[in-house]
Amino acid sequence: MDKDVRTLIRTIWFPIVLVVILWMVHFYNVYHKGTLGIYGIYPRAWDGLQGIFFAPFIHNAKDGFRHILSNSVPLFMLTSMIALFYRRVLYPSFILIFILTGFAVWMFGRPVYHIGASGVVYGLLSFVFWSGVFRRNLRSIILALVVTLVFNGYFLGLFPNREGVSWESHLFGALAGLLTAFLFKAILEKEEQEEEAWSSLSEPEEKTFFLPRDTFELTLRERREIELRRQEELRNRGDEWSSTST
After folding, report:
1. 120 and 97 in contact (C-beta within 8 Å)?
2. Which residues of the chain have pLDDT under 50?
3. How many domains are there within the chain?
4. Considering the domain boundaries, does residue 222 fall inside one?
5. Is residue 134 included in any domain, yes or no?
6. According to DSSP H, which parts of the chain are helical?
7. What pLDDT shows up at residue 182?
8. For residue 22, what are the domain limits?
9. What is the full DSSP assignment across 17-67?
């Protein structure tokens, strides 16, 4: 196997394993006619707390593979993107988004079973977007633009516009991604640090301005006093010149 391919596989092994587990659980759930649904998040019920850890791996067995396909593809894409470009924060950011999203749904969601990885997907999407806003380097901004273009239709999922869809998971996932991006904004990759170093070198050492920096900070009285002193200095110079020239 080519060295570059092996390196790529090592880098994205986590997204691969994640999606494999997702599909293994789904095949089991389909075989047992959707009995895993009771392990989803049931808000404000003590036995519903277990869903924080299990719900993202469980998908609707009644609609075949539509639900899991709609989540596993973007989950793999976004997790791989973070593994490739934000590898230093891959695991802590994923875990934080995973836990925060589930806990927020348990606290504030409707009293129904919430299942599926869509909340985590929205969290990862939000993380990549807001990382571009908070980090403000060329690489993170480009990634933010890419996910905005590719996943622009996901914005509608933040609102209760479809029956049977946990829009709460989408909303709280997006908020969890925003918070996570803010918390990890200072943990830069090597490439980002090099980019910042180059940008700092390219800045001019000293800036020149058309007007003095305190022009608009001086009061009218202070400006008059400065002008009077200047005129007095000019008169003194004129007197000195006259005395020396005679």
Report:
1. yes
2. 244-246
3. 1
4. no
5. yes
6. 3-11, 13-31, 51-54, 66-85, 90-108, 118-135, 138-150, 167-183, 190-202, 220-245
7. 97
8. 3-192
9. HHHHHHHHHHHHHHHTTTGGGGGSB-TT-GGGGGHHHHGGG---STTTTHH
